Amino acid sequence: MNNKLLAILAFALFIVIASGLLWLAVQSDNSISVFLSFAAGLSMIFLPCTLPLAFVIIPLAVKEKKLQKALGIAVAFGFGLAVTLALYGIATAFLGGYFGLDQFTRVMFVIAGSMALLFALTELDLFRIPLPVFTHRVPAWIMQGYAKTFLLGMFLGNAGIGCPNPAFYVLLTYIASTGSMAVGGWLGLVHGLGRATPLIFLVVLTLLGMKSIQWMSKVSGKINLWTGTALVIVGAFILTYGLFGMHWWEDSIFHASWNQFIYMIASNLAEVPDHPVAAGVFEASFAAGWWSLILLILTPLIWYKLKRGIQGAKFWIISLLLILLGLSASTGWIEVERGHGVEVESINNR
Length: 350
Prior knowledge:
It is a single chain. This protein is mainly α and 350 residues long. It is globular. The chain is built from 15 helices and no strands. Helices cover 68% and strands 0% of the residues. The protein has one domain (3-128, 139-348).
């Protein structure tokens, strides 16, 4: 694939994304359709639960030497994400309601977060997963890394589950009311493809902006570090969701401010005000959730520093900022009363 074809693909993806978001922003009835499912998926890129996935898939894709493989990596990640959303659609139809699926979501979050952290350790070369010895030829698509990226997309597909905008909420309610696992799986899959489309678009833009794809091989070590760090953050985020629920993030000033910003731009793209917040395996305070996130991020970073013997101030600055964040959570400075449906006044009065 040459840059001309890549540019055509980028333009086509832009048209699809812009059309879908414009339609979702102006329409008012939220009638259930395949297009609504896909458009709702497109809009999730603006929410704070889904946007960080871009910082995982972009370095994973662009470190490849060939454009075809880089694009294939992005597509494999997107399909993995879509499969996870299909599974949620099936479970929602089978069990009759999304926010009643506390036990299911807890298990999914804990497994997904743990596996994402495991992937992060392999990217940082801190841990190696011994592969079984095959007596037969391994399929080329596995050897090329697509299977690993597909699985990673499946695990990280959980990242956006806790951030429902109005269209997503309506979609889940409809799926629950049908009781049809086929309908739930299909609409969930389409919604997942919608979520994946902006991520693939960002990868394509990044590839177009590079003067030479071979340049990435010269900085592959740094890209692995960027990818590993992003996976640590996203994995820690998802795992903390599963262990301690979502209230620590949903009721933070960071989540509230971003959601209010999106609400002022286009209310249909923001999260549903006062939506139910899923519980975790353990009941914990607002501060405990933040300290869990911080420790899950700090531990691999400390491990990496000790193994690599890295010198410099960056590690200490990042560590200090994380600790200050934890202290801010402990004192309640970053907590708001209605973070998942907050008004501007609530933030300003902090």
